[in-house]
């Protein structure tokens, strides 16, 4: 974490801020696009996949909020004054909500459409968002790891419950 904070560049920081902010668009946009496509094409499977992706992300988000409330881990920059964040994130640190929801979205999408051209970009996006949270100084690696596990786990848990 100290190494990341000490070796930031303005160009990398801009990219990481963009990635970190992209989570809302992917988490909401992917299921919304699937739903719209399913309605337009009258495709029941696509509508079901939209529900699956949205549900995985929502469950991951809810459990993440509960864990944040229970654990109440301070952000890295609060614990260690040598870690200078790019911005001061609110709330608590454990687990990473960005990692949780992006990995839930990416995993559910990858399970719904198991093609390399879906899996590779979705996992690259989720991994990049998760990494950006450490780069920006607002999460520990363990926060991101736990968020990733939570997101992947929610997608695997809901797959047999929602998809036929």
TrEMBL record:
Pfam families: PAP2. GO terms for cellular component: plasma membrane. Keywords: Cell membrane, Hydrolase, Membrane, Transmembrane, Transmembrane helix. It is found in: Cell membrane. It is a multi-pass membrane protein. GO terms for molecular function: hydrolase activity. It comes from the Bacteria. The keyword Phosphoprotein does not apply. Residues 50-159 form the Phosphatidic acid phosphatase type 2/haloperoxidase domain. Transmembrane segments: none annotated. This is Phosphatase PAP2 family protein.
């Amino acid at each position: 974490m100290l190494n990341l904070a000490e070796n930031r560049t303005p160009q990398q920081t801009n990219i990481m801020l963009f990635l970190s902010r992209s989570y809302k668009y992917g988490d909401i946009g992917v299921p919304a696009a699937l739903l719209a496509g399913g309605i337009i094409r009258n495709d029941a499977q696509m509508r079901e996949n939209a529900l699956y992706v949205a549900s995985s992300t929502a469950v991951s988000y809810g459990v993440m909020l509960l864990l944040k409330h229970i654990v109440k881990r301070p952000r890295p920059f609060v614990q260690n004054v040598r870690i200078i964040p790019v911005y001061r994130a609110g709330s608590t640190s454990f687990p990473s909500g960005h990692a949780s929801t992006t990995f839930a979205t990416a995993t559910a999408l990858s399970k719904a459409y198991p093609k390399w051209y879906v899996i590779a970009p979705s996992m690259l996006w989720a991994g990049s968002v998760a990494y950006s949270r450490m780069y920006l100084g607002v999460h520990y690696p363990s926060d991101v790891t736990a968020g990733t596990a939570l997101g992947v786990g929610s997608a695997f848990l809901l797959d047999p419950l929602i998809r036929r």
